[in-house]
Amino acid sequence: MATRTLDSSLADTASRLRSAVVRTSRALRQEAAVETGLSPTQAAALASINRCGPLTPSELAEIEHVKRPTMTRTLATLEREGLIERTRDPADGRSSLVAVNAAGRERLARQRRRKSAYLARRLRKLDPEEVATLARAAELLERMREDEQG
Amino acid sequence: MATRTLDSSLADTASRLRSAVVRTSRALRQEAAVETGLSPTQAAALASINRCGPLTPSELAEIEHVKRPTMTRTLATLEREGLIERTRDPADGRSSLVAVNAAGRERLARQRRRKSAYLARRLRKLDPEEVATLARAAELLERMREDEQG
DNA sequence: CCAACTGGTTTGCTATGCTAATTATCTAAG
DNA sequence: CTTAGATAATTAGCATAGCAAACCAGTTGG
Asked: How many angstroms separate the CA of A144 from the C1' of C7?
């Protein structure tokens, strides 16, 4: 019976969590367009490029857990926006190295400065203890994803 | 200075949380297709219809925080899959009432039974204390969204 | 030097959002 | 009543974002 209630509580948590994640992600997508002109996907890619230095599209796709064609398109958008630059990979003629340029860094900085960013604005209304819970949850979500791979 | 560090920690948490939510949502979308043939959006809609009884498309759009045209299409998909049924609203000729049919309930039950559902499977590997953290985070995310409306 | 592999892109499909415009019905004012 | 305006739903049209399959070009191993 302990197992039974444990399982049903897990299923319940899973269901609520799914709902919360999906809805929050939806809200983020809407908000992002207004705030920075970048969708969450684009913003995440830009941040990763910035954080992990110049890297190839494949490496980036790996980091973001999307397939290569998807990353190709995201990069095309960021390039069209003038936020990144590519140089030929000296080690491999098929490949290119992607890096954030001045405009991209500026955009990232602006974004970071934004006090009113969707989540930050809402986090400010929570108790420190609640913020800590969410910080911990973010870690757990990432760990859950990485653990069992894809 | 307290404010400064508090703010930067908030921004940091916001950024990590955004990343975690976006990536998890992406993983969910991929997984859902394999597991049940329903995307998270579709599964969420079906669950809401089931939970909240027969209701109109508008009410459902409200619950799911999407616009009506979006819900129209989601419902069309669920109907094409034979999981829901519509009856004319006796009170308003413009409207219809949407309800889950036998096949839909069967699908929901199967989904619930699924021990291997993405999140549940991963939750099972966490400490009870960690599961509790995520449950609490789910609540907080929902509350954050509802508070300031959208 | 050629065959097989691999990184990247292109192409074509699906799903999910949105807004704006249409259609059908309802409701209220005259 | 009847007509004008509001409202529910849909349709149409646009954009993003994911996938897989096919394709090109450069790399590498035999």
From this structure: 29
